[in-house]
Amino acid sequence: MNEKWLKIGDSVLYRDDLETSTAIIKISREKQLNALNSSVISCIEQALSEIEKNKKIRSVIVTGAGEKAFVAGADIKEFQHFSENEAYNLSRTGKEKLFNKIANFSKPVVAAINGYALGGGLELALSCHIRIAVKEARLGLPECTLGIIPGYGATQRLPKIIGKGFAMEMILTAKIIDADYAYKIGLINHVVSSDELISKTLSITKLFNNTSPEALSLAINSVNSCFLSDADNIESRNFASLFNTDNFKEGINAFIEKRKSNFD
Ligand code: CAA
Asked: What element of type H or E holds 220?
């Protein structure tokens, strides 16, 4: 395993796990509980652009440095004096550069939640395709206690993940929940101990290597479309377009020939 971390900017670390073909992005602003400022957002965006082009990388893990926080939210100190217009731009730019980019990424992105996932931090995890958290993680949307609402997508993504009732409760009460409760309501997929967070996450990303990259990309697109009015047709179109790929032929041939498939 290549354990060497590369630095991107002053607050994001990056490494490839070659054994599982997984890229790991670690937000590293530990003293500020990994709060998301514009520099962190740009650095993650930069890492994702590189990962998108790299055919050897099949999936991504996003995690936070230290044991205390995954991400404790958008950086409150950065936006405290913003005008309405600046706040609108913060929300739009953050979504375009990071949150929507992750949600629509062509490779699976898994959030490894190592501590607090609050506000924009939980929204970052919500934009990922799968969420795994340590027992000590605490999750919540405190925005309404700050006199604002979530601005990085939680009002749209949370109801789709846990249902409107639980989403309303989390957003309106701003209560912070523990990992076991988050698991019960379907907010996270697995709860693990802190020393097995990355190994358990890698054991999941390793499974993606048994699948066709084009199939995963269009599966993400189809699931993301599930609430659109033409979602049913989007699924049919995506399904059909995979019949043109070499990996489809390989997958089917491998099944018929009773062997393991060898996807490109
Ligand atoms: N933004 C900026 N700085 C933050 C931060 C944030 N979201 N969260 C923590 N920090 C900073 C603290 O200001 C503190 O910095 P200093 O040492 O320079 O004072 C440092 O991180 C350590 O934090 P605490 O001393 O507060 O640590 P604690 O253990 O006492 O409390 C906590 C931990 C409960 C997570 C607390 O830090 C907290 O409540 N943080 C804010 C959580 C929050 O409200 N998040 C939502 C942000 S708004 C948002 O995300 C909007 C959006 O959707 C776009």
From this structure: helix 213-224
76 lines ligand 1 (CB under 6 A): yes
The pLDDT of residue 99: 97
pLDDT tens digits, residue range 159-184?
Answer: 999 999 999 999 999 999 999 999 99
| Residue identifier of the C-alpha nearest atom 10 of ligand 1 | 32
Known catalytic membership, residue 123: yes
- Ligand 1 within 6 A of CB of 146: yes
pLDDT of residue 242: 87
- Intra-chain end-to-end CA distance of the chain, in Å: 22
What is the domain partition of the chain in residue ranges? Answer: 6-209, 212-256
pTM exceeding the 0.85 threshold for the entire prediction: yes
| From 67, 123, 196, 250, the catalytic residue | 123
pLDDT in tens, 15-25: 999 999 999 99
143 an active-site residue? Answer: yes
The alpha carbon of 84 and the centre of ligand 1 are apart by a number of angstroms equal to: 22
Class of domain 6-209: alpha beta
> Is 143's C-beta closer than 6 angstroms to any atom of ligand 1?
yes
Dihedrals phi, psi of 202, to nearest 5 degrees: -65, -30
